[in-house]
Amino acid sequence: MRPAPHVGVIEDDSVVYVAQLPDGPIMVLETGSAAVWQAACSGPQETITERVAALTGEAGHEIQPYVEAFLSELLRRGLLAPQPPG
To answer: What is the phi-psi region of residue 9: left when phi exceeds 0, alpha when psi lies from -120 to 50, beta otherwise?
Structure first.
C-alpha cells in the first residue's frame, strides 16, 4: 500500500500526520495507528499485521482484526491506496 494521490504525510518520531490535500482534515496517528500506517507503507499487504506486531510487541493473532479494520478505514477515507503491481 502507499499514500493515496493528493495525500500529504508528515512523520515526526512516533506520530504520523496524514491529510487529503489541500483541505484536510488532518488525522493524527499515534502508537498503534501510526504503526499500522508505517507497516502498510513499508512492505507487502500480506504481512502488515506481522510488521505491526513487531513494532508494537503485540500478538499478531490478537491485533489482526483491529489492523484490518483500521486499514479498511484508511482506504475508505482515501488516505491509503493499493500499490500497483510490478
So the answer is: beta
Q: Is residue 39 part of a domain?
A: yes
Give the span between the Cα atoms of 67 and 75, in whole angstroms.
Answer: 12
Q: Is 18 domain-assigned?
A: yes
Per DSSP, the three-state class of 10 is strand
pTM of this structure: 0.91
The amino acid sitting at 60 is: G
Q: What is the mean pLDDT of each run of 10 residues along the chain (86 residues)?
A: 96 94 95 95 93 94 97 96 78
Domain with 7, as residue range(s), is: 2-78
The domain total for the chain is 1
Inter-residue contact 35 to 56 (CB < 8 Å):
yes
21 vs 10: CA distance, rounded Å: 12
